[in-house]
Amino acid sequence: MSHAEEPERPNPPRRGVKKGLYLIPSAFTAANIGMGFFSVMESLRGFQLLGGAAPNFDAASAHFDNAAIAIGFALLFDMLDGRIARLTKTTTEIGIQLDSIADVVTFGLAPAVLAYVWGYGATLIEGSKLHRFAWFLSFMYLICGAFRLARFNVQASRPRILAEGTPKVDKKSFVGLPIPVAGGLIAALVHFAPWPLVYYGPDKAQLYSALLMTLVGFLSILMVSTWRFSSFKTVGMRVRSMRIIILVLSIGMLIFLFSQYVLLAIVVGYILYGLLSRIFWRRGEAKAEAKLEAKTVGRS
């Protein structure tokens, strides 16, 4: 067969396009880190404006709101990078580790700083025992969030060789409150009321600071707990109904129009759903065990 008669070979696949797909999830992760850094800088700027004899509450609240909104955008980027990686089958080990580092910065450090400068950092007497305890709570929030991410990575990569007693990995649920949700709650709270707590006067500021410290401590405990929270990873992966699309568009429009209320309601609702479902599940399990034990006794 001559050279002219050789059959045409199909063009090789474009490797450049495939490599480009791997960059898309990493770009969203980089945006996540950028939002976390921006949030920290805005928090520090707002805290700076609270100092001096005449604090500028208007400008400080604007900076705190920007810091909270940045965390909200980072939460969106964090949701998209994982879904895009799964849809395009471009999940990589370095992407997984980069995502965890981004979460520590954006949903660990940034909310801890924001809660401190917007809340109890400016209301409590600096150097007092209560002020140092508040500083400790912000640190514990950060370290608990980092531990929660480390545990998640170990469970996801080596689920079979974990120590006995460690909860089994379930793709439909998270073990412990996800750190993006914990950081999202603090951000949603600040976005709901961006004026710093010191603005409300000494008495109310002390009360609100105590409540905020309790919330930060509670979120820290939830992150390192073994309570299960739904992952919603399977939602939207196989959309076959227009109702899902309409629901997503409706929620997006509500967030655009009433972000202060809707975002806080979504995060609080997610946490309450995880807590209440766990309580009812335990009650149902206890009733089932009691019925089984009663049947066993009746047969004997």
Quickly list its features:
about 300 residues; mainly alpha; Four Helix Bundle (Hemerythrin (Met), subunit A); two-stranded antiparallel ribbon; 8 helices; disordered N terminus
Q: What secondary-structure arrangement, pairings included, does this model have?
A:
Elements (H helix, E strand, L loop, with lengths): L14 H35 L7 H31 L5 H31 L5 H29 L15 E3 L3 H14 L9 H23 L3 E3 L11 H16 L1 H41 L1
Antiparallel strand pairs: 1-2
Helix pairs in contact: 1-2, 1-3, 2-3, 2-5, 3-4, 3-5, 3-6, 4-6, 5-8, 7-8
Kindly describe this structure.
This protein has helices spanning 15-49, 57-87, 93-123, 129-157, 179-192, 202-224, 242-257, 259-299; strands spanning 173-175, 228-230. A two-stranded antiparallel ribbon has the order 1-2. The protein has a single domain (15-235), classed as Four Helix Bundle (Hemerythrin (Met), subunit A) (Up-down Bundle). The chain is an all-alpha fold and 300 residues long. Residues 1-6 and 160-164 have low confidence and may be disordered.
The termini sit apart by 87 Å
Order of H and E elements: HHHHEHHEHH
The strands making up the biggest β-sheet line up spatially as 1-2
Largest sheet: 2 strands, antiparallel
Count of DSSP-assigned helices? 8
Would you tell me the structural class of the helices and strands? Answer: mainly alpha
Total beta strands:
2
Indicate the overall shape.
globular
